[in-house]
Write a structure and sequence with these properties.
The protein is α+β, with helices and mostly antiparallel strands and 441 residues long. Helix content is 32%, strand content 29%. It contains 14 helices and 24 strands. A 7-stranded mixed β-sheet has the order 3-10-11-17-14-13-12, with helices on both faces. It has a 5-stranded mixed β-sheet with strand order 21-20-22-23-24, sandwiched between helices. A hairpin with a 2-residue loop joins strand 13 and strand 14 (265-276). The radius of gyration is 25 Å and the shape is globular. The chain binds glycyl-adenosine-5'-phosphate (GAP). The site of glycyl-adenosine-5'-phosphate has 19 residues, from strand 11, strand 14, strand 17 and helix 10.
Length: 441
């Protein structure tokens, strides 16, 4: 138990994590009873908790702990005019090629001229394929009723810029943050929930005076990098990569990605971009509304630049699972353990009566009742205590609280810590305070 958690992760880590996700109820293939549905996934009881904790951790860091960022929850179903102005209708495309041999379709920029399915190099010319999901609002399917599922949450923040400015009295530098679903008709969804057609994003648009944009770009690179470290991604599995000029999105003057060392290599968790005044100016020109800031003190009127940290919640959740996964030995017995930060773990505490004995269960339920107001708890009475510890280790529960026969005498319980497996006796009276203190939020 002295090694760095996850130091010697297995070669088939991805397979093991995917199996664990299915077996323990983190992530299920969607519509599984019908044979699954095109790389879509459902988040099970534990996955729903973990994903919520990832999003809550982001919201605490980006909104709750700051006085210069406010929240927003904009519509997913959105007007074509938004995507016309933002450039997504014309630019949000991937290069699509067909293999003439096996007829599979691929993203040309991901396969280097060879079909990964059959090895043929006989591919069609690349053509631009738009990633937006189109639908119709109302019963009639015609041009006038076209709507799009948003491919990013960002535009909701831009089109509400003046609404937020007027209702919050914020002034640059300030940000608008949003967490929610986005949809992209990806040509090749892959690597479990890394790239899917339906996914969740955590984005923030930070509006600044244009001259200050480079400074704030650097600031957000640092802040965002630190967020992943603070929540337990090891430093050697995290890096920042600056985009070359030919990689930049149509709206960006500078972009850097926070990358994680996935089992298949370095890949993106989050993009931090200097979007300049591209979006506000584009929406201003298309709508005729002035999207600018008037600084009463200086008498200056300007269109702010935007620094955007844009992260994927579902993708980040997967990175946290991969980084936390470990197999070790406790007392000569092998176990699987997720070294998840307590703030992310689906359950923070499991309350375990030593036996189903009718005198232990009521006291255990009383203990559960004390802990539930402060954190998410599991309650498990089945099988041996050793097996129950293993089950909690496997889903990352940082603390197990065992109620035994002595508890009836001394009013104390055993608290077992996941990573060290150390056990201490704690009076029930002070248990909630003790656990609360250990769960630093
Ligand atoms: N508003 C800017 C924007 O959307 P992006 O780099 O395209 O930038 C931001 O997306 C983040 O959203 C990515 O870093 C990734 O974590 C996540 N993301 C993007 N496409 C995804 C997909 N198909 N599946 C899962 N996550 C995705």
């Amino acid at each position: 138990m002295t090694e760095e958690p996850g130091a010697d992760q297995p070669d088939d880590l991805m397979e093991r994590v995917v199996n664990l996700c299915k077996r323990r109820g983190f992530i299920f293939p969607s519509a599984e009873i019908y044979g699954g549905f095109r790389s879509t996934y459902d988040y099970g009881p534990l996955g729903a908790l973990l994903l919520r904790n990832v999003k809550d951790a982001w919201w605490r860091a980006m909104v709750q702990r700051r006085d210069d960022v406010v929240g927003l929850d904009a519509a997913i179903l959105s007007a074509p005019k938004i995507w016309e102005a933002s450039g997504h209708l014309s630019n949000f495309t991937d290069p699509l090629v067909d293999c003439r041999s096996c007829h599979e379709r691929w993203r040309a920029d991901k396969i280097e001229g060879t079909c990964p399915n059959c090895g043929s190099t006989d591919l069609t010319e690349a053509r631009a394929f738009n990633l937006m999901f189109k639908t119709f609002a109302g019963p009639v399917e015609e041009d006038a009723t076209v709507a799009y599922l948003r491919p990013e949450t960002a535009q909701g923040m831009f089109v509400n810029f003046v609404n937020v400015l007027q209702t919050t009295r914020k002034k640059p530098p300030f940000g608008i943050a949003q967490v929610g679903k986005s949809f992209r008709n990806e040509i090749t969804p892959q690597n479990f929930v890394f790239r899917t057609r339906e996914f969740e994003q955590m984005e923030m648009e930070f509006f600044v005076p244009p001259a200050d944009a480079p400074k704030w770009f650097e600031y957000w690179l640092d802040e965002r990098f630190r967020w992943y470290l603070d929540l337990g991604i090891p430093a050697d599995k995290l890096r920042l990569r600056h985009h070359d000029a030919d990689e930049l999105s149509h709206y960006s003057a500078a972009t850097a990605d926070v990358e994680f060392l996935f089992p298949w290599g370095w890949d993106e968790l989050e993009g931090i971009a200097n979007r300049t005044d591209f979006d506000l100016k584009a929406h201003s020109a298309a709508s005729g509304e002035k999207l600018e800031y008037f600084d009463q003190a200086s008498g200056e009127r300007y269109v702010p630049y935007v620094i955007e940290p844009a992260a994927g919640a579902t993708r980040t959740m997967m990175a946290f699972l991969l980084a936390a996964y470990d197999e070790d030995e406790v007392g000569g017995e092998k176990r699987t353990v997720l070294h998840l930060d307590p703030r992310l773990a689906p359950y923070q505490v499991a309350v375990l009566p030593l036996s189903k004995n009718e005198t232990l269960v009521p006291l255990s339920r009383q203990v559960l009742g004390q802990l539930q107001p402060i954190c998410m708890c599991d309650f498990d009475v089945t099988q041996s205590i050793g097996k129950r510890y293993r089950r909690q280790d496997e889903v990352g529960t940082p603390f197990c609280v065992t109620v035994d026969f002595e508890s009836l005498e001394d009013g104390a319980v055993t608290v077992r810590e996941r990573d060290t497996t150390e056990q201490v006796r704690v009076p029930i009276e002070t248990l909630a305070a003790e656990i609360g203190g250990r769960l630093r939020r």
